[in-house]
Amino acid sequence: MNGFWEQIVIDRSVPIPLYFQLKEAVKRAIKQKQLQIGEQIPPETQLCDLLHLSRPTVHQALTTLVSEGYLARNQGHAVYVANPKVSGDFLKRLQNFSSEMHQAGMKPSTQVLRKKIIIDNTNVNEQLGLPLGEPCFYLERLRSADGFPLVYLETYLPYKRFEGIAKVDFESNSLYDTLETEYNTPVYCAKRQIEAVNADVHIAKLLDVPKGAAICFVKTIGYDQQGVPIEYSVAHYRGDRNRFTVTLYNGQSL
């Protein structure tokens, strides 16, 4: 058994529910990597004896951690430390990947797989409102957090508007920051379309998931302040490591 469990202190003198104290102790241990991804949690009965807690208290703590995504149960009902999911607000605001990962307490990294100028993609030119044959800049990246691949991203930009952008090091520079600071063209707003797909062989290899695994497929068109398309991207997000949040309002109250 991991020595962490013997170090847990449950304070019965404070007005904090016992299950909550246990839950927070386990959550801290996961964040501080005292408990590793995939590590099995001791059986509830064993934790009851070790911590002198009732079975319902231990069960509530573990069940809450499962619902929050810190723990998971397998088909045999064993509980283990789950793969971390990144909660993203990208459905309601524009934010660069590195900033979002830092806010989540994770270390971001980007691998540029390819970048080139293309002139023969009819669909891309249509999405960007460009005449057929006009060149586009193509940027292919694999983005990770804490060493785990999260998203495979392909981005297209109108090259005539962003000439020279192929020289930028996008492993250490944000695309959105580059557009704003180097070209004075921030992405003002964007439309995103999301659908569930299964990973093909190529995507599975890049994201380190089994073929057929659940993937969130996201198409984005970014616009400048005049409503002109300046970015078209297609992204494949790992379904087991990403969680997307959106806030909804009652239309009658707006």
Instruction: Output the strand order for the largest sheet.
Output: 4-5-6-9-8-7
Specify the biggest β-sheet. 6 strands, antiparallel
Order of helices and strands: HHHHEEEHEHEEHEHEEE
What's the number of helices? 8
How many domains make up the 3D coordinates?
2
Rg over alpha carbons: 23 Å
Binned strand content: 25-35%
State the distance separating the first and last CA atoms.
54 Å
CATH architecture of the largest domain: 3-Layer(aba) Sandwich
Mean pLDDT across the residues is: 87
Query: What is the CATH homologous superfamily assignment of the largest domain?
Result: Chorismate lyase-like
Can you tell me the CATH topology of the largest domain? Chorismate lyase
CATH class of the largest domain: Alpha Beta
Instruction: Indicate the low-confidence ranges by residue numbers.
Output: none
Explain what the structure shows.
By secondary structure, the chain is of the alpha+beta class. The protein has 2 domains: 78 residues, Winged helix-like DNA-binding domain superfamily/Winged helix DNA-binding domain (Arc Repressor Mutant, subunit A); 159 residues, Chorismate lyase-like (Chorismate lyase, 3-Layer(aba) Sandwich). 27% of the residues lie in helices and 29% in strands. The chain is built from 8 helices and 10 strands. The termini are far apart.
TL;DR?
This protein is of the alpha+beta class and 254 residues long. Helix content is 27%, strand content 29%.
